[in-house]
Each structure stands twice: as structure tokens, then as C-alpha cells.
Amino acid sequence: MNQEDLFKNLIAHCKEYGFIFQSSEVYDGLSAVYDYGQNGSELKNNIKEYWWKSMVQLHENIVGIDSAIFMHPTIWKASGHVDAFNDPLIDNKDSKKRYRADVLIEDHIAKYEQKIDKDVTKASEKFGASFDKEMFLKTNPNVLRNQQKIDEIHTRFAKALNDSNLEELRQIIIDNEIVCPISGSKNWTEVRQFNLMFSTQMGSVSEDANTIYLRPETAQGIFVNYLNVQKTGRMKIPFGIAQIGKAFRNEIVARQFIFRMREFEQMEMQFFVRPGEEMKWYEYWKEKRMKWHHALGISQNKYRFHNHDKLAHYANAAADIEFEFPFGFKELEGIHSRTDFDLGRHQEFSGKKMQYFDPELNESYIPYVVETSIGLDRTFLAIVGNAYTEEKLEDGTDRVVMKIPAALAPVKATVMPLVKKDGLPEKAREIMDKLKFDFNCQIDEKDSIGKRYRRQDAIGTPFCITVDHQTLEDNMVTIRYRDTMVQERIPMDSVNKIIAEKVSMKTLFEKQA
After folding, report:
1. pTM for the full model?
2. 176-199 tens-digit pLDDT
3. Looking at the 3D structure of the chain, how many domains does it have?
């Protein structure tokens, strides 16, 4: 099965098993807006807890806030969003579909990268243990030809982005015969900029209303509260402020399920440092954040760093952590050295001093900032996309299992009486009543035990506890492990301890040390 079909199956699975629903579905839905169902919201909250505790609980010099979605409109003028928060858009005249010009070019480059990967895979299978990948990449004619094409396009693309040359972006599309994914047509319009912010009105009557914006990022809520946090928390440089919250972008080209949405959630941390020390901390947070991802146990080959071809107006260094989604490597998290741009601009526009007095240096300065910004929804997609597994079992049957890391799983354990009589439901309830104080658990009594196992596999429950007639005699139950389907008899009194050891986030935190 190809990746496109697998991705379609994942999307259908997420709806069928209560992870994600189309927003306003009974009214035919709202494009690029989604609701999280009962299992999706649990997984989402667990991801947030993992990020929050990794940032705030494990770092003595990082604290968290929760700023408002509505903010003074001058904030967005100061930050540059009013004038510069744009995407380069291009329309196909035949399909009437609109695309981001930069994404079309990036996807075209990715096709050459996929050709190289395919050649490497074939050669690896052909030569086995004797295969020298590095030598192959340096000498194979097909690889060299494709790499040369990548380099040529990339050089033009990076220069066009840095020069904000919209005509050159279009010319790259024309020269490389990039077609509309819908119509296959090369009939393109000019490229133009489109501002992504949602505007609305605040006021009792329309005549008195002021135009404000739904925040396109959560970072500015941190910057305008920098002095409040620093003073009330008696924070000393270096220190960080973390926040999880909703952001809104009027994405014209919203696609790939929850990867690009108009309403989404960010997990951001702004780390305030001395001027001149920002690159040291930039490298520190690049390493630290990658460890956070690797701690989940997902293959490290699924992650890579990608340095920005074009730096944002506020940055002097920027890199993305990219993840291999079913549709290729795409941005999951950004690490940026934002210099003193944000605090400096807010000092300029507000007239309030944003300086920090450093007692060790005996001087005042506007701190520099290193940012880590990760999309919660994209992290969710990365985890469920990696977890979704279609398996053919030894007995010839199939199963779909969500191999979600146990610490993040929506339901940690399900208690199952073998039959719904003979005192087994009551015994199951006894176990459930002990587990529910520590874990999100379920009791499942309906259907055969095999069907119940499959149902729990499909939502990613790592442990099933079966109560049978023997349990009534010896207080032993059967614990079944999701990924291996191995079953073992354990004392009923040990269930809580065994589950606690397997689902604790402590193991994830220790891997980051």
C-alpha cells in the first residue's frame, strides 16, 4: 500500500475511533477546521502535559503563562505582522485552485529527493552488507543528476525568497514545468502576497468598534508580558517563558488533514539571554528539543534538521525540526534566534522600557531571545501517523493497531470481564475502581474477548486486563500487551504498579537528561 492510501486510511480511522472529526460536520463541515473527539482530546492533553512538564517542571528557570487571544492591535504593528505576515500565492487558471508558490517548489524538490532515496533503497537491497551509501551518493550517475537539479532549483529558490522576488518564484515554477496537482495544467497566474491574519471588531456598536486581530502566534503574548513575569517572578537572565495556546491564520491553502489549519494550537517557549550569547543557547535548544522528540521512541530517522533558506525579519538564525509525515518531510518545530527585535519593537511602539538590569555585568540591555515553537496539532499528526499500523497476523487475520507511546495513550488500560455474569463484572469493577484514581481507564463488557482486544488496539490502549472465573479463586488476572499481544497472569494487586511503571512520563523525562 502506498503512502497516499495509508494516509487516507489513517484519516478515516481517526474519525471512526473518536480521534478527530470534521468541524460542524452536520452542516457539511468547515474547511480546514477540525474537532478533537473523546480519544483525540485525551491524546492531545497528554502531549501538552509532556511538553509543559519538560519545559516548566524540568527547568528551574522557565515558567509558564496563559495570555489572551485578543490583544491590542498595535502589538501586531510592532511585531511586523500587519505589514509582513504574508504568503506568496499563485492560482491555476484552469483548475481555479490556489496554491502557495513556495510549497509548490518545495514539493517539486522533494520529488527529486524521493528519486534519490528510491535509488539508494534499491542499491542497498541489491548489494546488502557490502553497500557503501556514502560512496553511492558520490558516484551514481542518477543520484548526481538529481542532486544537481536539486541544487540548481534550491539556489534560485533561496535567492528569490530572500529578495522577495515574486516574479522569480513564478519563473521557477514555469521553468521546471510544475503542474497543478488537480488539473495537471501549467497555466499559472502571477504570484502575489496574501496577509494571513483574521481581523474582527471590538466595541459595543459598529461605529465605535476598533479593528483587532485574532492572534496569528502565541509568542507576542509572552513578549508583552516579559516585564510582568521578570519582576513578579524575580527571574534572572537567562530565563524562559512557556505558553500553550490557540492561534489563527487565514490559510488559503489549508490541506493535508490537520497539518495546516486555520485554527490551531502552539506550544512555544521564549528564552531570554544576554546579547552575544544567543548562538550558544540556539545550539543548546536545538539539541534539547531533538532529545524531546527522540524520547518518544519514534525512529530517529523520522526526524531531521533543516536550516531556513530565508530568515524572518526578526531572526539571525533559524532551523526546523522536520518529521517524515506520510506526505514527506515537513516542518514540525522551529528553533529561532529572534535577536532583540521583538522587545525592541515593543519598547519603541509602547514607550515602555523593556530593558533588563544585569547585576553581574552592572549594565542594562534589551535581552536577546531564542524561541522554540512547536505545533501541537502537527505533533499529534506525527504521533498518530507513526502509530497507525496495519498488521497481518499468523492466523491469517488482520488487525489495525495504534502503537502510541504508552505514556501518551488516551486510555491506559481496559478491564474486561470474560463474560457478563457469574460475578466477573463485579470483580472487574473492583479493579477499575482502584485504577481510575491514577489512570484514564475503561471497562469493556460487550462482544467476544477477541473483538474487544481489536477495539482497544484500534484506539491504542497499551494494556488489557481480563478477569475470568479463575480470578475469583486466586485473584490472578491476565494482562495483555498491545504491541506484542503477549499475555501473562499476574496478581490482581500488582496491576496498578505494573501499569504505573509502563505509562509514567518519568521515563520520557529521564531520556532527555
Report:
1. 0.85
2. 999 998 889 999 999 988 878 888
3. 3
